[in-house]
Design goal:
Helices cover about 35% and strands about 15% of the residues. By secondary structure, the protein is an alpha/beta fold.
Length: about 300
């Protein structure tokens, strides 16, 4: 007790303006602050860890490649829809996805080009048919059309230059000439699946004559941004061949030794570990999962020069 009184006298000498009452109040405040800090350090943290999957898929067979005569009468030759073979392919791929993936898809994000939107609709139609076909391959992976959310993303659009888009509009630098109208595109998507509240990563088309390095940056930024925005969800991104190629080459060891080819509706599958503590999260780098010949991605060894 004498020791406490001495401590109080010393403190009062250092802070002479404090009355005994104010001294006691400050002492109590310091005590409770220290107690709360200690309790915070001792309180257990509940970290939740899970695997996040991102599937980057190429669209199905485009109509102008199957029927070149379509171009002569097409009002928008730069934006072909799927051919019938492409629609069939999307439906058939959807029937195989549950067994191939082994995890559910929570969100589908689609390039604004019509062939990608048609592919998304075909996939959803194929997966909706699961209940009608008892012989269909099953697994833990599926897209539930009643729960999945679909949105449009310019960042997943085609490589924006004359080499990738062979029939651009007369004034390709003017974005209005391309005729992309997001509300009209969204009208093609079932209302119960559409999520038009999503803020896009890119809200407009790239600058015309986009280079491959710039497109590579765009695709990788879009994929990473979407994954970080929805860290608790598995994503299916429906895009173009260049985006799938970029995904594979970026995450494939010794990628320079291979030529990368992908079939229509071929897809690359990325996976990472995510640890959440409330809203904040930490994530590892993405790893590319082996295709095992099922995903339509072909990594061919480069031939030696003669």
């Amino acid at each position: 007790m004498r020791f406490l009184n001495v401590k109080r006298q010393i403190f009062m000498q250092r802070t002479p303006n404090l009355s005994p009452t104010k001294f006691r109040c400050r002492s109590l405040a310091l005590f409770f602050a220290a107690s709360m800090a200690t309790a915070s350090l001792l309180r257990p943290h509940h970290h939740r860890q899970h695997q996040q999957h991102v599937v980057v898929m190429r669209h199905g067979d485009r109509l102008d490649n199957v029927d070149p005569s379509w171009l002569s009468t097409a009002p928008r030759p730069w934006d072909p829809p799927l051919a019938e073979a492409g629609q069939d392919r999307a439906i058939n791929v959807a029937k195989l996805l549950p067994a191939q993936l082994g995890f559910p898809i929570h969100r589908v994000v689609v390039s604004p080009f019509r062939r990608c939107v048609d592919t998304a609709l075909g996939l959803m139609a194929g997966l909706s048919a699961q209940d009608e076909d008892p012989g269909m391959a099953t697994g833990n992976g599926s897209i539930d059309p009643s729960k999945v959310k679909v949105s449009i993303e310019y960042g997943l659009g085609e490589l924006f230059n004359h080499r990738a888009i062979r029939h651009p509009p007369p004034s390709p630098t003017n974005h209005a000439d391309w005729g992309f109208n997001v509300p009209e595109i969204e009208a093609l998507i079932p209302a119960d699946a559409l999520d038009n509240t999503v803020m896009p990563v890119f809200s407009e088309l790239p600058q015309w004559e986009e280079t491959e390095p710039r497109a590579r940056e765009r695709y990788l930024h879009t994929i990473r941004s979407l994954a970080d925005r929805y860290p608790s969800e598995n994503l299916l991104l429906i895009t173009h061949g260049e985006a799938v190629k970029v995904t594979v080459s970026t995450h494939l060891e010794d990628a320079a030794k291979f030529k990368i080819r992908m079939d229509y509706c071929g897809y690359a599958q990325l996976r990472r570990q995510v640890v959440r503590d409330g809203d904040p999260f930490e994530a590892s780098e993405f790893e590319l999962l082996a295709s095992h010949g099922q995903t339509g991605i072909h990594c061919l060894p480069m031939t030696s020069p003669l």
